[in-house]
Amino acid sequence: MKDPIYITTPIYYVNAEPHLGHAYTTIVADTWARFNRLVGNQVRFQTGTDEHGDKIAEAAEKENIKPKQFADRISGMFQAAWPPLDIEFDNFIRTTDQKHIETVQTILQKVYDAGDIYFAKYGGNYCVGCERFYTDRELVDGKCPDHQTVPIYIEEENYFFRMSKYQDALREHIEKNPDFIRPARYRNEVLSFLSEPLEDLCISRPKTRLEWGITLPFDDRFVTYVWFDALINYLTGLDWPDGENYKTMWRGTQHLIAKDILKPHGIYWPTMLMAAGIPLYKNLNVHGYWNVDSSKMSKSLGNVIKPLDLAQVYGVDAFRYFLMREMNYGLDANFSEGLMVDRYNADLANDLGNLTSRVLNMMSRYEKGVVPEAPAGGGQEGGRIEKLITETARVYAEEMKTLGFHKALSEVWSLVKEANRYVVQSEPWELAKDPANQARLDEVLYNLVQILGAVTVMIWPVMPSTSEKLSEILGMDPPGSGLLTKPEDLLGLVPQGAQTTKPKALFPRVDTAKVKAKA
Ligand code: ME8
């Protein structure tokens, strides 16, 4: 059965270059997209850049160039950052695309015509960094809690979205659909916002103050507030309202974000959709924050991690593996090069790397590289190996479905470790000494090759290029769409008679002393 699944990342602001945090969400999206393809779902994956608003206008002004010219450059850097990390998106959206501008204007007009946008005078505390007004209650010691700066008092006439009107409907929807916002801690956070009266949302900026934005269709003295513009990207990307993609994919919408933008996605967006008469997205999947060496990543601390730098040193797959294995989706995690190297050596060089080189070297030595026949009736292991593989595949798929990447990988690594133990216990090198043991030797090597075949498929979403390399070495088909629709699909993937080859070290060990000395 093919379920549609539309996976989105936030569209990133073009006021900063791509860093570890952006890379993480985008790698999660890629991994999840690949997993969903593997289990036979129909997938569309979108990322992009958010290009309007005062932050961008200010950054461009500093360089004395036009905002669009500035946005083109940084958006280009985002577009160029992903393919080298083996991230394969189906669509890259920019909020300066003409199609997006038209979509935003259509929705604004629709909501305005329905009476949910009104004009009013408003005075309030405005934080330039956040591009929004703060209520007194939200300020901490009179300062913006994110920027620690005193907001400026601004009084002006603006357009407002009647967000408050949808407060009860949203609360009901969240209560009826406990998974709508997940994990539960973020759902609870949104419910707690909703337990207080919701204010209407100011959705315009006068052009006298900011010109860099989408003009309101019903009043050209104003541009659209950047969040009202940005969130709509998710619809533009599917050619709302008539596009085929919209018709098939929207109901399977899965937004991926970090906790920093929970409120716009958990409150503004669903209420906007309600006002526009559009069904709500399926799930909002919220992850935690990466800290670097236990501190917040920031330009001023000089600890901003550029994803490509690390991927170049350790390999793209090792980088992807580390991020997916180390963070428990939903919670914060800590990044340090030392931690990454430790995991690399333990899980990749040792567990997986050793298993691969041992098995394939033995295959070459004892079987001339040719995969022996399957042991009759499960052989001496009596189906234990098959059970091990299908049970791992079952738990793996269950975890991957609900973004439990770290658990899914730890499950696969239990299988890898078990296979390494099986090598030690069955001692193929001893069996090889006596030709009378050939059948048992064939059986052990057959089982080990099949375990590697199953591992090859399960690691594909996280480590596509290692997986493709492994499938070549094993002489099996490369992993791809629809290969894992049920756990049994992972049995006997390497056919009898397939020609295996001896690999070069997949993950050469990294000298930890050198990395520590560098730090
Ligand atoms: O908020 N750890 O864009 P943005 C984990 N344009 N993820 C992180 C991270 C960290 N330390 N830092 C950033 C915007 N991210 C808006 C979004 S969507 C309609 C508009 C990731 O460039 C994470 O996905 O500030 C976070 O939500 C996003 O980058 C914020 O990106």
Describe the structure.
With 519 residues, the chain is of the alpha/beta class. It is built from 19 helices and 16 strands. The strands form four sheets. It has a six-stranded parallel sheet, sandwiched between helices. A four-stranded antiparallel sheet has the order 5-4-6-8. It has a three-stranded antiparallel sheet with strand order 9-11-10. Helix 1 (20-38) links the parallel strand 1 (4-13) and strand 2 (42-50). Helix 14 (384-401) runs antiparallel to helix 15 (405-426) and helix 14 packs parallel to helix 17. The longest helix has 31 residues, at 337-367. The two termini are 50 Å apart. The mean pLDDT is 95. The structure holds ligand ME8.
Helix content: 40-55%
Question: What compounds are bound to the protein?
Answer: ligand ME8
Radius of gyration: 26 Å
Distance between the termini: 50 Å
Beta strand %: 15-25%
The tally of helices reads: 19
Q: Enumerate the spans where pLDDT stays under 50 for 5 or more consecutive residues.
A: none
The average pLDDT is 95
The major pleated sheet works out as: 6 strands, parallel
Structural class: alpha/beta
